Amino acid sequence: MYVRDAKNREEVWLLDHIESMGLDETAFRSRDYVVAVDEESGEKAGFGRIRVHKPDESEDVCELTSIGVLEDWRGQGVGAHVVERLVEYASDEGFDTVYTLTGEGGYLAQFGFQRIDESDLPSVLQDRLAAKRDGVDPDAVALSIDVAEFRLPDRLRDAFKNAPDGRDDADDEESPEDFGIDPESATYKYDTGR
Is the pLDDT of residue 121 over 70? Predict the structure, then answer.
């Protein structure tokens, strides 16, 4: 199991899973996502996103958002490694603090995320929090972490390393759906009519 940057051709896959999990897809860009992939089968197990806000009146703000783990992979450390990769990315980009707005604060607390008062949020995130509460996550609260304080519990690291074998092999071949094409209704420029 490993976590890598999302590929452009995975946009449809990402959007399908974001929608089915009821996650926030605001300002979707596949290049902001990472994807957890099983090394043996090539099966995608989870994903997450770092969103960098560039407000005019203040310095850039880094938000961790849209973390999802496919049902068959839950409880195996996939989400933890997605979060770890995103926090590492934020650190590499020079951010000292990462914010998140979620109703899953208990899950993120195990990594060192702490609840903060809404008034301590940068203004761009105060607006995002209100929008999330009105939309996809009515229980959302504000959390933050100093990237130097992030810790991945050993039990989650071990679960990720030892994700179960014996899953169905994933199809590595690219399909029309990978590129957002519905093969049932698509017409092709060079269709020979056969």
Answer: yes
Residue 10's closest CA among 49, 64, 54? Answer: 49
On average, the pLDDT of the chain sits at: 81
Q: Are 32 and 50 in contact (CB under 8 A)?
A: yes
Q: What is the dihedral of CA 188, 189, 190, 191, to 10 degrees?
A: 40
The CA–CA distances, whole Å, from 137 to 15, 62, 93, 112, 159 equal 17, 19, 28, 21, 28
Instruction: Give the tens place of pLDDT for each residue, 8-19.
Output: 888 888 888 888
Top-confidence residue, 166 or 175: 175
Classified as helix, coil or strand, 108 is helix
What's the CA angle centered on 64, arms 60 and 68, to 5 degrees?
Answer: 155
Q: What are the counts of helices (DSSP H) followed by strands (DSSP E) for the chain?
A: 5, 7
Q: Residue 37: left (phi > 0), alpha (psi -120 to 50), or beta?
A: beta
Sign of CA dihedral 64, 70, 75, 81: negative
Res 174: pLDDT: 56
CA 2/CA 81 separation, integer angstroms: 8
74, 80, 69: which is closest to 47 by C-alpha?
A: 69
Query: Which residues on neighbouring strands pair with residue 107, listed in sequence order?
Result: none
User: Predicted confidence band at 75 (pLDDT cuts at 50, 70, 90)?
Assistant: confident
